[in-house]
């Protein structure tokens, strides 16, 4: 079955950096767009970033543009989210997801989801 396993979350001070990874198995990774979403307590899930199957096209939420970078390594079936200049408002559970049909910012267009990894940014 399809598995997406996130790692790399943790506690960091404001201004610091983290790199999230999402390892995929059970699917033809190079055929899927990949996305990162996040959900803070009491808030709705929100789009963070996405990348096309080839890596040639990326989208970012305005709130993370210029600070976060999404990338992928199709040989390793892994997608990454480099997060720099972290802010307390970036605190959330971060989820990776796979979309078969399109590189999209809309969560309901994703087919598979990971279990999430907690990112906590202290002020």
Please describe the topology of this protein.
Blueprint: E1 3-7, E2 10-13, E3 18-25, E4 33-39, E5 46-51, E6 58-60, E7 68-73, E8 78-83, E9 92-99, E10 112-113, E11 117-122
Parallel strand pairs: 2-11
Antiparallel strand pairs: 1-3, 3-8, 4-5, 4-9, 5-6, 7-8, 9-10, 9-11
List key phrases describing it.
123 residues, mainly beta, 4-stranded antiparallel beta sheet, 50% strand
Structure described in brief:
The protein has no helices and eleven strands. With 123 residues, it is mostly beta strands.
How would you describe what is shown here?
The protein has strands at about 5, 10-15, 20-25, 35-40, 45-50, 60, 70-75, 80-85, 90-100, 110-115, 115-120. It has about 120 residues and is an all-beta fold. The strands form 2 sheets. Strands 2, 4, 5, 6, 9, 10 and 11 form a 7-stranded mixed beta sheet that branches. A hairpin with a 4-residue loop joins strand 7 and strand 8 (about 80-85).
Strand content: over 45%
How many H/I helices?
Answer: 0
Number of strands: 11
**Major sheet attributes:** 7 strands, mixed
Elements, N to C (H/E): EEEEEEEEEEE
Helix/strand class: mainly beta
The separation of the N and C termini measures 40 Å
**Poorly predicted runs:** none
What share of the residues lie within helices?
A: under 10%
Instruction: Give the integer mean of the pLDDT values.
Output: 97
Report the C-alpha radius of gyration, rounded: 13 Å
Shape: globular
